[in-house]
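Minutes, project check-in
Item: structure for the 184-residue chain
Input as provided by the requester:
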Amino acid sequence: MPQSRDPLHARLEELIGAYGAKVRRLLQGYNLDRHGVDPADVEQEVRIRLWHAMERDRSGAFHASYVQRVVASTVIDALRRAQVRAAEPLPEADEDVFDLGEGPVGPERSAGDSERMLALERCLGEIPERRRLPIALHLQGFSLQEIADLAGIASVEAARKLVSRGLDELKARLRELGYGDFDD
């Protein structure tokens, strides 16, 4: 295959040559197959993102830490897409329709929601760092396996314990502030 004379293409090939093995090792470490994600697809997406970054900043230096960040964000996006694909489809229009009965959101409710979110953020910030990331990922809807993988936790059981203990601590802190209605 003849070499391209495009300097951007040459820089990308140089970058992939320097960090390609590291990218593959990082992708293997995420165990993407368990989540139904093809590591080769993620690797290709990493290449595309690096290409776009080089197009935006033609004189930029792309070091190992930047490549690692690109890999991590690409993996997170791929896991989120896989989770969306795995979700149950919405019911057809002719199936049972139900009314949530909430009606329009007024200013009082909107202000109360904002206040509760600020309290949640404040309480979450007070939780020890070891539990904070797993709880934040759990609240965003990640599975225990994904939490373990993304947070670098040794096992799913350890992730479950961190999330469980952290949520108990978060609920206790929120109850102290007067927010005591929780669905367990």
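Outcome recorded: The two ends are 60 Å apart (CA to CA).
No further action items on this chain.
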